[in-house]
C-alpha cells in the first residue's frame, strides 16, 4: 500500500494558446510499489455520460528523479502502468483543451478553463493523499487572474485533501470581471470571463436573495464559507455544472443586462438567475446529499442510479420557485414558467413509455444522448421530476392538514444524509412515512415508478391556482399564455418542430400521433410548400387557421428527392397548459410572499 505522508504535486500551465494545449506535471513521491497505475476519469460527476477525457491527452511520459525515462505501458484507453521500482516519479503530458462547455477544458486568447477530471490523473493507491497544485499563468497574458475555490496556500499554490477534492474545483485563469457579496458570513463571488459591462449591482442584489433563501432553507452550519459562480461568457451556449463550493456556468454574452439598461425582467435574465439558483441548490442536494452509489463513484465507467429524479427533479422545482419566494419574479411569472414546463411535458409522448425512475437509470445512454426522436421515446427526469416535486409538496400539505411540506422533507434529507452517507432508493417514501407521518407510496408508484401524469388540477386549486389546457396559440407556442382577444390560433394540428430556412422549413422533430406524423413527415425533411405555396412558419400558421376540411398537400425535399404528402386537417389538440391565479392570498401564502 502507498505511504500516506508526502503529497502528490500537480502543476498546470499553458503550452500553447493558439494550439489550445495545457501542460501538466505530476510528481509522485517514493513509495513501496514496483508498479503504479495512473488514470484519467471517463466521466465527470454531475454529468452522466462517458466522455473519455483521455482522448485529449498527448505526449504522455514519465521519468525518475535522475531524469531517466520510466517504462510506460498503456493498459486501456485511460490507464497507464509505470514501472517505478518504488522510486519517486515525475509524469508529464499535454491536454488539448477546446471544448467550450462546463464539462471539460477550454483555452482561447482571453482565458483558460478546466475541470480537474480533464487534466489531473489519479494515482492508484494514492487517491487519499493530499495534493499540492501549482497554477502557472502565462507571463505574456497581461491582466490574467486565477479563480478557483481550491484552498489557497500562497501566490499560485493551492491544495486539496485528496484526489476527490482536487477534481471538484474547476480552475479559471484569464481576464475576468467579478464582484463579491456576503450573506450571513458566507462570501459569494459572481465572476464573468472577459471584459464585461454587466449590471453587477442588479445581478448581485438578486443573487443575494437567492443565496439567502437556500442558506435559510437548510440552516446552519453552512457547508461552505466561500462560493464562486464561475461564468464563462460565449457568443452562444448554455449550461451549468455543480461543484462542492462553486459552479461552472456557460451563458450567451449579450443576454445579460448591461450597465445603464432598464431593469427589464426578460426571459434571459430570469433564466440566468434560475440557473444560478439551480446550481447553488446542488451544493446541498447532490454534492452532500447524494445517491448511495454516488458516494464514491467509479469514474472509469458508468455508475447507475434510479434516483436522479430526486436530485435534478427536486432542484428543478426549487430553482424557479425560489425566484418567486424572494421576489425576483412575481407569482404570475412563476406560474407561467410552471405552465411552460407542463406544456413541454404534455407534448412529450415519451412520458407514457418511460418512468422518471427509468429515465434516471438510463441517463447514460438515453437522456444524455438525445436525438430528434427522443421526444417520443423518453421522459426528462428534470422536467417531470420538477412537476413531481411540485405535486409532492402540495400532496404533503393536503394529507398532513398543512403541517408539513417539501421544505420539511429537504431538511430531513439534509439532517440524515448531509454527511454524504448516501440515500437509498426508497428514501423519499420512508422519510415521508416515518418522519412526516404521511403515506405517499401511491403517488410515487404512479408518477415516479409508473408513467401516469401528476394530477395537478385539484392540488393547485388548494393554493388558488387553476389548471387548464388549450390548443397551441401558434406553431411556436410554449404554453403559459391565454389567447389574446382579437388573435386567431391555428385551427388545425401540425405537430412538428421546425425552423425557417431561406426557402421553406426544416423539420427537426415530429410528435407521435400528430397530423405531421400521419402525413409521413420525417426528421430532416425540408418542407418547401403547402397546397402549392412556398411557406415559412408564419404563412403555414395562417393556412392552418383557415376553416376548411380534407387534407393539406405538403411538398417536401427528402434526401434530394421531391415528394408530396397529404396531411389530414385535424383539430389542434389541447396540449398547451395555462395556470391562472384565482386566489391571490392563497397563492401568496403558498409561495411565502
UniProtKB/TrEMBL annotation:
InterPro entries: PDZ, PDZ_sf, Peptidase_M4/M1_CTD_sf, Peptidase_M61, Peptidase_M61_catalytic, Peptidase_M61_N. Keywords: Hydrolase, Protease. It comes from the Bacteria. The keyword Amino-acid biosynthesis does not apply. SUPFAM superfamilies: Metalloproteases ('zincins'), catalytic domain (SSF55486), PDZ domain-like (SSF50156). Residues 492-560 form the PDZ domain. GO terms for biological process: proteolysis. GO terms for molecular function: peptidase activity. The keyword Kinase does not apply. This is Protease. It comes from Alteromonas lipolytica.
Amino acid at each position: 500500500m502507498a505511504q500516506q505522508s508526502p503529497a502528490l504535486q500537480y502543476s498546470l500551465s499553458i503550452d500553447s494558446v493558439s494550439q489550445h494545449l495545457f501542460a501538466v506535471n505530476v510528481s509522485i513521491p517514493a513509495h513501496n510499489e514496483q508498479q503504479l497505475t495512473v488514470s484519467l476519469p471517463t466521466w465527470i460527476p454531475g454529468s452522466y455520460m462517458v466522455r473519455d477525457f483521455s482522448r485529449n491527452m498527448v505526449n504522455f511520459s514519465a521519468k525518475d528523479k535522475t531524469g531517466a525515462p520510466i517504462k510506460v505501458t498503456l493498459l486501456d484507453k485511460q490507464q497507464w502502468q509505470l514501472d517505478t521500482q518504488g522510486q519517486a516519479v515525475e509524469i508529464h503530458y499535454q491536454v488539448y483543451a477546446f471544448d467550450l462547455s462546463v464539462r471539460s477544458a477550454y483555452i482561447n486568447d482571453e482565458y483558460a478553463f478546466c475541470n480537474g477530471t480533464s487534466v489531473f490523473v489519479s494515482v492508484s493507491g494514492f487517491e487519499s493523499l493530499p495534493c499540492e497544485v501549482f497554477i502557472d499563468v502565462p507571463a505574456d497574458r497581461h491582466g490574467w487572474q486565477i479563480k478557483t475555490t481550491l484552498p489557497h496556500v500562497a501566490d499560485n499554490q493551492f491544495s486539496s485533501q485528496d484526489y476527490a477534492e482536487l477534481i471538484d474545483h474547476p480552475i479559471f485563469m484569464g481576464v475576468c470581471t467579478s464582484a463579491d457579496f456576503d450573506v450571513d458570513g458566507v462570501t459569494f463571488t459572481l465572476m464573468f470571463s472577459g471584459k464585461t459591462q454587466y449590471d453587477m449591482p442588479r445581478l448581485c442584489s438578486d443573487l443575494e436573495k437567492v443565496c439567502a433563501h437556500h442558506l435559510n432553507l437548510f440552516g446552519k452550519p453552512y457547508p461552505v464559507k466561500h462560493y464562486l459562480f464561475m461564468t464563462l461568457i460565449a457568443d452562444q451556449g448554455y449550461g451549468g455544472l455543480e461543484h462542492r463550493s462553486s459552479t461552472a456556468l456557460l451563458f450567451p454574452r449579450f443576454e445579460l443586462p448591461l450597465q445603464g439598461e432598464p431593469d427589464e425582467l426578460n426571459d434571459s435574465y430570469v433564466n440566468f438567475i434560475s440557473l444560478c439558483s439551480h446550481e447553488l441548490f446542488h451544493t446541498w442536494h447532490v454534492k452532500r446529499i447524494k445517491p448511495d452509489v454516488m458516494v464514491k463513484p467509479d469514474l472509469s465507467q458508468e455508475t447507475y442510479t434510479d434516483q436522479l429524479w430526486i436530485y435534478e427533479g427536486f432542484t428543478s422545482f426549487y430553482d424557479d420557485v425560489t425566484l418567486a419566494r424572494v421576489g425576483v419574479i412575481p407569482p404570475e411569472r412563476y406560474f407561467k414558467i410552471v405552465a411552460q414546463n407542463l406544456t413541454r411535458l404534455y407534448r412529450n409522448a415519451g412520458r407514457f413509455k418511460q418512468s422518471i425512475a427509468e429515465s434516471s437509470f438510463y441517463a447514460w445512454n438515453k437522456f444524455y444522448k438525445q436525438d430528434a426522436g427522443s421526444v417520443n421515446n423518453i421522459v426528462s427526469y428534470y422536467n417531470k421530476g420538477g412537476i413531481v416535486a411540485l405535486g409532492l409538496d402540495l400532496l404533503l400539505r393536503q394529507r398532513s392538514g398543512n403541517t408539513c411540506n417539501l421544505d420539511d422533507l429537504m431538511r430531513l434529507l439534509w439532517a440524515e444524509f448531509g454527511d454524504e452517507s448516501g440515500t437509498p432508493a426508497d428514501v423519499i417514501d420512508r422519510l415521508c412515512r416515518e418522519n412526516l407521518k404521511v403515506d405517499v407510496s401511491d403517488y410515487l408508484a404512479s408518477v415516479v415508478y409508473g408513467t401516469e401524469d401528476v394530477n395537478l388540477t385539484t392540488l393547485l386549486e388548494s393554493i388558488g391556482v387553476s389548471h387548464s389546457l388549450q390548443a397551441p396559440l401558434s406553431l411556436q407556442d410554449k404554453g403559459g399564455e391565454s389567447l389574446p382577444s382579437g388573435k386567431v390560433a391555428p385551427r388545425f394540428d401540425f405537430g412538428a418542430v421546425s425552423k425557417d430556412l431561406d426557402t421553406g422549413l426544416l423539420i427537426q422533430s415530429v410528435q407521435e400521433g400528430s397530423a405531421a406524423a400521419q402525413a409521413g413527415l420525417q426528421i430532416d425533411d425540408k418542407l418547401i410548400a403547402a397546397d402549392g405555396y412556398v411557406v415559412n412558419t408564419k404563412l403555414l400558421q395562417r393556412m392552418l387557421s383557415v376553416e376548411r376540411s380534407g387534407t393539406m398537400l405538403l411538398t417536401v425535399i427528402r434526401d434530394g428527392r421531391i415528394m408530396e404528402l397529404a396531411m389530414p386537417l385535424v383539430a389542434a389538440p389541447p396540449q398547451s397548459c395555462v395556470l391562472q391565479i384565482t386566489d391571490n392570498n392563497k397563492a401568496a401564502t403558498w409561495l411565502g410572499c
